[in-house]
Structure formats: C-alpha cells, structure tokens
Amino acid sequence: MLTKRIVPCLDIKDGRTVKGVNFVDLRDAGDPVVLAKQYADLGADELVFLDISATQEKRKTMHDMVLKVAEQVNIPFTVGGGISSVEDVDDLLHCGADKVSINSSAVKRPVLINELSEKFGSQCVVVAVDAKKIGGEWFVHLAGGTIPTEIKLFEWAKEIEERGAGEILFTSMNHDGTKAGFANEALAKLSELVNIPIIASGGAGTIQHFADTFKKGKADAALAASVFHFGEIAIIDLKKELKRQGISVRL
Question: Exposed, middle or buried by CB within 10 Å (0-12, 13-18, 19+), for 150?
C-alpha cells in the first residue's frame, strides 16, 4: 500500500507566507524559509511553495527564495507561480526544486505539459487546478482563482493525464480556507477518472478532515496551509491518528 502524504503549502506574496479564505483576505503567516525548515523537521512528506501573485503580476517565481528554501529542506519540494516555459523549469530545478507546479500557463497552452514531461520526466510535472462548483458543475479558474473559464474540471483532468503530467493538485475554491473539510466527492471522482496521484487542497480544518479525504476522497496526498502555519494541527499528531485509523503514513 502506498503511503499517504501530508504536504504543507507555503503561499508566497511579497516574500512572506500568506493565507486567506476562498483565495482572498490574505494574512501574514511568517517567513517561508523558516517555515519550510520547521515542516521538514516536523515530519512533512513534501512541501509546496506557490508564488501566488507571480502570474497576475506577470513575473517569474523568486529564484533566490527557492534557493534558500532548498538549502533548508531534505524532502521533495514543489515550486509554482509564473512558470510558462521549459527554460523557467530548468532554472527552478537548478535552484533546488524537485518538481514544478503549473496552472494558468497549462490551460492557456496545454502543450506545455507535454513539453515539460518529455524534457524533465512526468515525475517533475504537477498541474495545479483551481476549480469552483457553480450550478452543480466544477469549472476551472485561472490566475489565483481570479479568472473564471468554461473549462470543466473532469475533462481537463483527463487531458492533463493524457499530456503526461505526473500529479494533479486540485484545490476547491468553494472549500479553500473554510476549514469545513475537503471536496471529497469531487476528489473521489477525479481519482476514479485518472491514474495519476491526486493531491487534495482546500478545506482542511481538523485531523478527521484529512482521514476523510484519504478514505472518502481517495486522495493520494493532502495539502494544507493555515492549520499548520498557525499551530492548529501538529503534523506528528495528525500522522499518529491517521495511522490509528488504518491509513498508511510515514512516521
């Protein structure tokens, strides 16, 4: 049985870690380099570092911060934000990232997924999908959730897999920051549709929410931010309880 992964997410804006609700009302959560080291030491399986305003501000991810974070951690480290070319990914991997996460750029030019997986291997390529449920249908949103599209989540997920991505990071905008639990129904459908790992994001509030997304949502990994940043859930306590419930985790 593959172990389930616990993944803290560092959303970066202006060089600081931030967290909001439903993608807005951001508040400061600390120094990303300090937080990254803490999480690596405290038992996180992976880290995700998202430069959340890079696409909107039409600039590249901050390479100096990626270098600093990479020096501090010994676990897989995914970087996203403002990535739109093979050259961008080459730069980030040289800075110490293990994987990259693309979102808006993949929707605008889907062949980018093919190019990256062919050049660097599918294990390097995570496609992040921010989606919102509107009138019973899930629709993909771009640029940090600010731009709605008519692209349907499940159709896009199939295309992502077919183009060679190694993982899908699915964030429910309806659940993000609400601490009311993950979008398990959508996650379970995604897991049935595709054969690549699904990372659940958006809605973690309690330890049981993580257990539910692994059992009911069939997620391969669960990503969260504020519950970790503000000390509401300790990763070791979370993993011990998951193990107690029969979920395979790395302790």
Answer: exposed
